[in-house]
C-alpha cells in the first residue's frame, strides 16, 4: 500500500501515538525533523528544522544548537507552531485498522465513522488460534478443522471460595440496610460497610477472571449470574453533611495515566466526568491539568437536562466538591465552588453547557501523597446545599 506513515501526538480526538498512513507526505514544517512524529505543537528553528516538545526539551533553553546541522540559535529566534486539528483532518489517509486488506481512502475526519464498520482487521480464531480477517471470521470458524482446547472443570475449592465471599457480601449488605434504617444512624459505620463490600467485589472479580480461563461455559454462566445478584455500584461514597442536602459521586477514570502523559508531553489538557443529575440539575465536572506544572483544578458545568423546566433558575445552591479518599474520610479534600458568575448559573441553552465555575487549584502531589486515587480513578462527591 503506497503512502507515508506518521505518528500523531497531542491531538485530542486521536489516540496518543496513533500511527496513520497518509496518501501524500505532509509538509516538512508539520513533522519533527528529529523523531518524525506529527505533533500538535512544535517549534521552528531559524535553520528551518522542526522540533516536537520532547526533542526541544533535550536542548538547553539558551545557547542551543540544532541537532541536525549544528546551527546555533537563541530562545527568541524560535517560532512556536500549532498544527490545528481542523487542518490535519482534511488530509487523505488509508485505513489504520485494515491496512492493505481495506480499500478505504478518505479524509482523516471521515476515518472514525469508517472504523466502526471496517471488518478488514484481524482477530484470533478461538479454535485454531490463528489470525483471521474479521469480515471472514464466521465462515472460518464454521469450517475450521482444528480441535478446540479442552477446558478444565472448576475445582470445589474455587467454587466454595467464591460462594463464601458472596455470603460475606450478603452479610455486609444486610448490616448496611439495618444501620440505614436505624433511628440512630451511624454514618461512619455505613460508609465502612460499603467499603468492606467493595473490597469483596474487587477480590471476586480477580477470582472469577482466573476461573473463567479454566472452566466450561455453563459453569462460567452460573458463577457470573451469582455475582450479578450481589453487584454493587463502585466508588467511595459520602453521606450528606446535613439534612436536606443532596449528594452524588463522579469519577475521573484513568486519571493517573492522563496526568503522566501530559507531564511527558508538556501540554495542558482537560478531562470530564460523565453527565450527572442531582436535585433536578444536570451537570458534569472537569479536571484541568494546566501545562505540566503538577497542578490540577476542578470546575463544575451546568448542562441542559430533562428537569430544567421543573427547577429554579438561576442556579443558587451552595456547591461543595469532595475529593474522596477510598477509606479514610479524614483525608478527604473539600473544595467550595463559588457559583456567582451569571453565565455559569443561568438556565443552559438547548444542546449546550454553561461556562464552568472553578473550585480552586490543588497540587497533584497532594492528591498522590494523601492516597486519593482508587483503582486509577479520582472520585469526587458533589454536594448541593
Automatic annotation (TrEMBL):
Single Gene Ontology MF annotation: zinc ion binding
Key word Transmembrane present: no
Highest rank taxon of the organism: Eukaryota
Gene3D superfamilies membership: Apoptosis, Tumor Necrosis Factor Receptor Associated Protein 2, Chain A, Zinc/RING finger domain, C3HC4 (zinc finger)
Matching SUPFAM superfamilies: RING/U-box (SSF57850), TRAF domain-like (SSF49599)
InterPro entries: TRAF-like, TRAF1-6_MATH_dom, Znf_RING, Znf_RING/FYVE/PHD
Coiled coil: 163-214
Start and end residues of each RING-type domain: 32-69
Keyword Transcription: no
Entry keywords, A to Z: Coiled coil, Metal-binding, Zinc, Zinc-finger
Protein name as catalogued: RING-type domain-containing protein
Species for this entry: Amblyomma americanum (Lone star tick)
